[in-house]
Amino acid sequence: MENFDAIVIGAGHNGLTNAAFLAKAGLKVLVLEKNEYIGGATASLELHKNWKYSNCSYVCSLFRPEIYQSLDLGRHGLEVVPLQGSVTFKQDGDYLGSYHQSDLWRREVARHSKKDADAAVRFDADLMKWCRLIRGFLLRTPPDPASFRPRDALEFAFLLKKFYSLSESELYEFIRFFTMSIANYLEQYFESDVILAHFSGGSIIGTGLGVYSPGTAYVLLHHAMGDVDGNVGSWGFARGGMGSVAAALSSSFLSFGGTIRKSSEVKKITVSNQTATGVELVSGEIINANAIISNLDAKRTFLKIIDESDLPEDIVKRAKNFKIRGSSGKVNIALDGMPIFSALPDKSPLTLGHMHFSDTLERLERAYDDWKDDRWSSDPYVDMVIPTQYDPTMAPPGKHMMSVFVQYCPVSPEGGWDDKKKKAFGDTVINQIGDYSPNFKDLILHAEIRTPHEIEKEVGLTEGNIFQGELTLDQLMFNRPFPGYAQYRGPLKRMYMCSSSNHPGGGVMGAPGANAAREILRDFKRKNTTPEDFGDD
Fold this sequence. Notes:
alpha/beta
């Protein structure tokens, strides 16, 4: 029987990031993946002949540049192209266009509200201030507030030093930011309905909350703190689809001597004397290792692949209570050509970015109301992109692929999902787009519809929750996933966690995987292979 230093369960991007850093340090690492392809939610699949879909995740921004550089992912084929702006269409036939050029953006806001044009400058400055503050914590291990170890004391000192740089008023504002709804926060700046709606969308993506729910202001910050080519808040497309992220990570991992086994689903983690000793596959095969790292979310890790009798009672209770509600759907569409949008001039650059159709806070909140009643939104919020405008390799010449992220979609509508309801959900999304594009429906060659049910079944995200746990204050930093277990170590000896259920949370970021690798290497007394920026060494 072959033995390994470490086994990583799940070949999602965090699992591959973790495995690559461990292998780079010289450990013998095995990655086990239940699907016949790698990447988890960061996969590019040909679900319609000659069309490549980014079937779940669809844009790139949060992935940490330090990881990109340290694992030399450019050499392994990862290229990210920045998106150009975004647009929110209005029901009256007008639109709000967001441009990267500051003068154009200011003039566009002023077209809707001169007061908001001045407020937008203040808003951007304030948001970037919080982004820069939070980004300094992403690649660090959260301190344990109940610990008196020197490491934790030093980490708390680091946090205090960061916050000491804030003025008294800024500190109050920062605390309020974490607890406010996005609607209440934005209403401090703006008066225009479409501008309020435009900025609010980023706070509900992947979240079982509405625009008036406390805590949603932080979700906007979480989406805004990424960067592409050093531009904070920018988004981009990975050439070849989001599967290129996983492909580059796996290539880097394999170059360090790692091993990946696909179609190898883990049935359970084997335990002896409160120590993780290996894994048992669904096939019955047992593989041993000195460290077992779960890239599954907290619920699947502690309620699915570890026997309850092997865990402390409080961990089982915390896992059951962990908030991980599914609220998102996805529609991938193969198009025979480029859609025309009635509100936009011909060949408008605004089609190159994110496109939205919810132009008031009321529409966004009503979409949430439907979800609370276990219905998909009759007037959903969508985040739509057409990446083939940048990357023609994803479709045949002259054709296009459209990726539509949908909020809100329930885990289980009344009576459960069936083919008829699934089609009705997809038709709701397609009809909304068709209201703003006269030729859109005639261009559709294929539509692949995903509810939280499909996302969970295929990718393994509990309830289809894209963040592997809500990004609320009670589930951030040293509370993620549970108090006392936020430093990537599990309740069993030699068992670790590296998924987005851990700090700093969801999105295609790689930080949980890298942070967990640092802690594992510390325990193995191996040299840290992650960049110095990552850590507290």
